[in-house]
Design goal:
The complex is a heterodimer of chains A (about 160) and B (about 350).
Chain A (H helix, E strand, L loop, with lengths): L4 H20 L9 H5 L3 E6 L7 E2 L5 E2 L1 H12 L3 E6 L2 H9 L5 E7 L9 E2 L4 E4 L5 E8 L4 H14 L4
Parallel strand pairs in A: 1-4, 1-5
Antiparallel strand pairs in A: 2-3, 5-8, 6-8, 7-8
Chain B lengths: L15 H4 L2 H32 L3 H12 L2 H12 L14 H30 L8 E4 L2 E4 H30 L2 H28 L5 H28 L15 H10 L4 E12 L1 E10 L7 H13 L4 E8 L12 H7 L3
Parallel strand pairs in B: 4-5
Antiparallel strand pairs in B: 1-2, 3-4
Helix pairs in contact in B: 2-3, 2-4, 2-6, 3-5, 3-8, 4-5, 4-7, 5-7, 5-8, 6-7, 7-8
Classes of the chains: A alpha/beta (about 160), B mainly alpha (about 350).
């Protein structure tokens, strides 16, 4: 049950690699490279209608506080936003297929699509129908941790936490 | 316990506590203290890991492992209390077997832990679930949650490793297999920590599978421990031959008991059945007197006392004089058959 010396050496190598990666600012990294792709490119954002966070007009035009939020975020990485309005379960399916990067729609932190949508840390709260506090999050493609931490940093700075 | 003083040392039977010498009593006290510290430490760990675990598979598995690792210390403490009771009409063999039951509980905790971890991480790999590990804001600073997990793993694994080493030393003195299993698990905790840390860092590097692969690796070693302890505990509970505290070999006391009996001038042949009751052994010694020698009550009583004096673990001794060794009840100590190479 002891860890052999070789594994310890491996750990040192791993630690050195991380330090290097950390210096380059590529840590944590995206397994699918989403943030790198979106930077100076296109960020694909699914919108589930849920006013006042998000609203979809008859002509497909999107608006709402979270649409503004993501527009501002996209600016920080010089990305164009491609809005994809649809129902929540369609968006979850698209996320699973890798057709979306982010989902907004006043999602609660206990969003049920955990294997399709990863929740960021809550950036604001509201009150649910039962009077309990609901934490509002943005949905990110699971495992794309560079994109996730970048959005979380943006949300925290905007919310005055940082 | 009260009322047993003065009698415990001389009489072969009594509570498990009476069997102990001063060294064992002190060891049990220290082991009990260590187990209380373990429970306190693990409770804090469980709370801390739950706080930072988030979506990391390996961290969630480490948490489940920590919860389950509370079971062996609890089982030990319950058993240590039970063995203080003295045998009575309804429990003629005493309460020593509580230790065996606690060992079984510890073994099943290990198995459950390893099984849960293996299935959970294999599922993650098969369904390609990429663990999201985001940001934590700590005192106005943004820090990747992965680093917090690494820090918590480092800090929380110190306790079990240090406590495990201490308990391992005590388990031999006490001949306590629960304590041994628990200590072994604690000592292994640091390899769990290393694997978990490697997994989390791997995720940070963009290797989504690193986390689950690390958990799978850890689960294999836990499962192996579980199986080993399950075999050991069931072996003890089903009256298998008494084995050493780590179940690595047949216990040498069986041979010593037979040799002690054969050292009596009136004894020709002797064979002992020795079973591990938990801490202490029960021995039935079959003796065949040499031709012409009379197995008098005095001789039998004297032999019983001498066997009893061999070791504190020899707790309940029955001497059975027989005209010849009954082949279905007596078997040479496996240590001796190995040495003799007899048919």
């Amino acid at each position: 049950m002891t860890v052999p010396r070789r594994m310890r050496r491996l750990l040192v190598v791993a630690a050195a690699t991380i330090l290097l990666a950390g210096c380059q600012g590529g840590f944590p990294a995206d397994p699918q490279g989403t943030l790198d792709r979106a930077r100076e490119g296109v960020l694909r954002v699914g919108v589930s209608e849920n006013p006042p966070w998000t609203d979809v007009a008859d002509d497909g035009e999107v608006s709402g506080s979270e649409v503004d939020l993501l527009t501002d975020y996209a600016e920080t990485i010089d990305a164009e936003v491609e809005w994809v309005p649809a129902g929540e379960n369609t968006l979850a399916a698209m996320m699973r297929e890798g057709q979306l990067d982010v989902v907004v729609g006043g999602l609660a932190s206990d969003v049920p699509w955990t294997s399709e949508i990863a929740a960021t840390r809550p950036y604001t709260t509201t009150t649910g129908p039962d009077g309990a506090e609901v934490k509002i999050v943005v949905g990110v493609r699971p495992g794309e941790n560079a994109l996730m931490t970048d959005i979380e940093r943006f949300l925290a700075e905007r919310g005055g936490e940082l | 316990m009260n009322g047993s003083e003065g009698e415990g040392g001389e009489e072969a039977t009594g509570s498990g506590h009476d069997a102990f010498g001063e060294e064992q009593r002190e060891t049990l006290r220290r082991a009990t203290r260590l187990e209380w510290i373990t429970i306190a430490w693990m409770s804090v760990t469980v709370a801390l890991v739950a706080l930072v675990a988030g979506q990391s598979q390996a961290m969630r598995a480490a948490w489940a492992e920590d919860v389950l690792s509370l079971l062996p210390p609890i089982a030990f403490l319950v058993a240590a209390r039970r063995i203080r009771k003295r045998p009575d009409r309804r429990h003629p063999y005493g309460f020593h077997r509580s230790i065996g039951v606690a060992h079984l509980v510890a073994a099943i905790a290990l198995l459950a832990m390893g099984g849960y971890l293996a299935i959970d991480s294999a599922m993650t790999l098969v369904t390609v679930e990429r663990p999201p590990i985001g940001l934590t804001v700590l005192f106005g600073h943004a820090i990747w949650s992965g680093w917090l997990m690494v820090a918590v793993m480092v800090v929380t694994s110190i306790g079990p490793v240090v406590l495990g080493r201490k308990k391992l030393a005590l388990s031999e003195t006490l001949h306590d297999k629960v304590l041994f299993a628990d200590a072994d698990m604690g000592k292994a905790d640091w390899s769990t920590a290393v694997a978990t840390i490697a997994g989390v860092i791997g995720v940070g590097l963009g290797l989504w599978w690193a986390d689950a692969a690390a958990a799978l690796l850890v689960s294999v070693s836990i499962l192996r421990d579980g199986v080993k302890n399950l075999r050991g505990s069931i072996g003890g509970l089903t009256d298998g031959e008494a084995r050493t505290y780590d179940d690595s070999a047949p216990h040498p006391l069986t041979r010593r008991i037979e040799e002690r009996a054969e050292a009596e001038p009136w004894v020709g042949e002797a064979s002992a059945r020795v079973r591990d009751e938990g801490h202490v052994f029960h021995a039935e010694v079959f003796v065949v007197p040499v031709a012409g020698a009379e197995p008098t009550l005095e001789r039998i009583a004297a032999l019983r006392d001498r066997v009893d004096e061999l070791d504190w673990k020899v707790h309940d001794v029955v001497i059975a004089p027989v005209p010849e060794l009954p082949p279905t009840q007596t078997f040479r100590s496996t240590l001796r058959t190995g040495a003799d190479d007899s048919p």
